[in-house]
Amino acid sequence: MRDILAALDRWYAARLPFGLATVVEVSRSAPRGPGAAMAVGPDGEVVGSVSGGCVEGAVFELAQEAAESGTARLETFGYSDEDAFAVGLTCGGEITVLVRQVTWARDPAFGAVAASVAAGEPVTVATVVDGPAPRGATLAVWSRTAAGGLGTRGLDAAVAADARGELALGATGLRHYGPHGERREDTVTVFVQSFAPPPRMLVFGAIDHAAAVARIGDFLGYRVTVCDARPVFATPRRFPEGVEVVVDWPHRYLRGTPTDARTVICVLTHDPKFDVPVLREALRRPAAYIGAMGSRRTHDDRLRRLAESGLSDAELARLRSPIGLDLGARTPQEVAVSVAAEIVALRWGGTGAPLSRTSGAIHPREAD
Asked: Taking Cα atoms as reference points, which of 325, 327, 269, 329 lies closest to residue 298?
């Protein structure tokens, strides 16, 4: 969608209806992933692709029909090899495509979504795919606001809350609810598409604990980088596939790396010559979480060194140290769980207390 948004915004600004086909689900070796899109605009102009060519002709006809009729459709295309003239995927996979009409009246938030994507501002768009809610209805969700609607206030509230969670991770996929947002039901299927890159997790210190933290960070949806100045430790084979490993001085690498309000920084070097310079850099830049490993004695010494380096009390207060929640963790894997728990709790305002000892809603309802 991001690749074709400029053309879609041009049609939308001119108040010209168009048909939009979006891949909402894939299986096996499908050619393109969820979120891939193709649109048919005025005079049959086509932008984008949902399959790399396999079923584009059929999807073109569906999108053109949707642009004219306003009726949303859900179609699945699977493997087709026996008949050379059949419409299907030759790769052996399967894709499910939602095709709907986009107009100024039907999608009043589309322009704002396009502007946010162009500006690099994270936004999530939730679209009803199936169920008793109106198919093709959309809800655009930003960090603090939302626009549009999926049919009921309860469904809007539940999807908006979940969409903000997906937005924090840049995730895209299908979610299931009851008609009024009940999370234990699956009568309504909603496609949640986040227009934001995954947040970054920067792990400094290529020790055994770093491998465990990197693994759980990858599991939570972060784009993980491990950095250490010691090449004997900073080797890709020691870390999960997909984790970037960098050999550099931590503070120098961080100085040249952009961070934002979603970035997580974990300093596990446990050595003043590494962790004090990188923390001095980290505590003066945007980040959602900055944690450092060490004993309480190490923490006190580190705070003293950081204060002597010129950091203010407000800057030092951002440091989560010793890192993690008190779970009684011993192994690197258990420590990684405690670190991940603290990151999640800080993101959503959780207390870290056992739910069996708390009262009220487990997931606080967001304001309408």
From this structure: 269
Q: Which residue type does 284 have? A: R
pTM above threshold 0.70: no
Query: CA-CA-CA-CA torsion for 215, 216, 218, 222, nearest 10 degrees?
Result: -140
> Element (H or E) spanning 108, and its range?
none
Q: Which two tokens stand for residue 7?
A: 């053309």
- From residue 6, give the alpha-carbon distance in Å to each of 2, 10, 22, 121, 285: 8, 6, 16, 15, 32
Report the interhelical angle of 5-13 vs 110-119 (nearest 10°): 140
CB 292 within 8 A of CB 279: yes
pLDDT on residue 47: 92
What are the DSSP E strand ranges found in the chain?
18-27, 37-40, 46-48, 73-77, 94-102, 123-130, 138-141, 146-148, 172-177, 188-195, 200-204, 223-228, 244-247, 264-267, 289-292, 319-320
Please identify every stretch of the chain with a pLDDT value under 50, giving residue numbers as ranges: 81, 83-89, 366-368
For residue 313 the two structure tokens come to 């009390």
User: 265: which strand partners?
Assistant: 202, 290
CA dihedral 180, 182, 187, 188 (to 10 degrees): 60
Strands 73-77 and 46-48: unpaired
Tokens at residue 54, please? 């396999």
Residues 6+ away with beta carbon under 8 Å from 356: none
Q: Write b or e for each residue in 331-354: b if 16 or more Cβ atoms lie within 10 A of its Cβ, otherwise e.
A: ebeebbbbbbbbbeebbeeeeeee
Which DSSP string do the residues of 255-272 spell out, in sequence order? HTS---TT-EEEE----H
What pLDDT was estimated at residue 29? 59
Under a CB-based contact definition with an 8 Å cutoff, are residues 189 and 123 in contact? no
Q: Which residues neighbour 361 within 8 Å (Cβ) at sequence distance 6 or greater?
A: none
Are 241 and 299 in contact by the 8 Å Cβ rule? The answer is no
